[in-house]
Each structure stands twice: as C-alpha cells, then as structure tokens.
Design goal:
Helix content: over 70%
Number of helices: 10
Distance between the termini: 69 Å
Oligomer: single chain
Length: 217
C-alpha cells in the first residue's frame, strides 16, 4: 500500500504520533525514513481536513528536537565505543568513513554542523550522538538543535502543505510524485555523503603506517 494511502486510514492523532516518533528515532541515531513520512503526512494534511498542518509541524519539530537531545545524551555517555558498536550494527550508515566525514564537519563548523546536518538525510542520524561523543557544549548543541529542528520540520510541513493546497486536484492523481521527489533528494544526499565517506576512508588508510614484515631468521 502507498504510504500516503496508509496514512489516510489512521486517525489524525495517530498520524501526529507516528510522524513525531519516526523523526525522533531517526534523530536519535536509528536509520528510518523520517523525511518520507513527514512529506507524506504534510501532503495528507493538505487533502484531509482532520489533520492540522500546524499541529503536524509542531509534532515533527518536537520529535526532531527531543530525538537529537536523547542522541546527544547517549553519545556523551557512550563515547567512542558507541560509534564502534553502531558501526558493527549499521555498517552502511556508521562506517569509519561516514563517521570521519561527519567528524570533520563538526570540527570545521561546530554547532552549525548540527543545524545544517538536519537538512541532509544521513547527517540527521549522526548529529545528536556525534555531538555528544565530541562533547560539544550542550547549550551550543541545544540552540542549533532547536533552530534546525523547527526550521526543517516546520518548513518542510509548510512548503509541502501549501504546494498540496495549490495543486490539490493534480496531487490527488499524482501525489506519489511528492514521495518520489523526497526519495530522490534523500538518495542524492546519501550518495554525496557516501562519496565523501569513501574519500575519507581512503585518506585514513593512506595515512596509516605500512606494517613492515619481520625479517626471517
């Protein structure tokens, strides 16, 4: 079943809860399609009188901020071993190259890496835990977290909602294109990050000293 069609079968309160929960878990560090769920729900709100876009945006923002904060706390407590554990559990998302790429972003941009990371698919799962591991001052993290969460979640909801209102009749027939667009944006950002991660991994391997074999007796 199409994601939006499935959302249309559940009560508005469940839609709010689902959006907040998925985005919260994604922000916490669990790879989930938060952006796709948010876009689908925002499109649904433009065609479903029972779903309030303001409440939807607030729930999405709350999930983003709370999830990132929990991820920060877990990262601060778990430290580097946590990244190793995540790399073993989710090698496609928390590989050494991905971590190295995200870490360089934090070193270069500081709190702005948290803010702008909200708009990049894979960086959303890194921002909270990595900020905690790197022991970024919490007040800096919180400011960037709140601003990024509200602007990303609220802005996405508003844009998709108003697009849905303007093109309601068209979207009733072709609303799946909104999801396709969201997937393409997510895949593009993932490919860019993967390319940077592969480059970072190659640089790390090149920087490692070569092991000199012991001379035979």
């Amino acid at each position: 079943m199409h994601v939006q069609e499935w959302l249309d079968t559940v009560p508005p309160a469940a839609v709010y809860a689902l959006v907040g929960l998925v985005i919260g878990l994604e922000s916490l560090g669990i790879p989930l399609p938060g952006e796709i769920i948010l876009v689908s729900a925002a499109l649904l709100s433009s065609q479903h009188a029972g779903i309030n876009p303001v409440v939807l945006g607030a729930c999405a923002s709350l999930g983003a901020v709370v999830g990132d904060s929990v991820g920060y706390a877990i990262g601060r407590k778990g430290g580097r071993p946590l990244l190793t554990w995540l790399g073993n559990k989710f090698p496609r998302h928390f590989s050494e190259g991905h971590v190295a790429t995200a870490e360089r972003s934090f070193e270069k941009w500081g709190m702005w890496a948290v803010f702008f990371g909200r708009f990049v698919a894979l960086l959303r799962i890194f921002a909270g835990p990595l900020a905690g591991v790197l022991r970024m001052p919490y007040w800096k993290f919180l400011i960037a977290n709140v601003l990024g969460g509200i602007i990303w979640a609220g802005g996405t909801t508003a844009v998709i909602y108003y697009v849905g209102i303007v093109a309601e009749s068209w979207l009733k027939r072709f609303s799946w294109l909104g999801l396709v667009l969201a997937v393409l944006i997510g895949l593009t950002s993932m490919l860019v990050l993967k390319r940077r991660a592969a480059k970072a991994t190659a640089q790390m391997q090149a920087a490692e000293p070569e092991t000199v074999p012991a001379a035979a007796d």
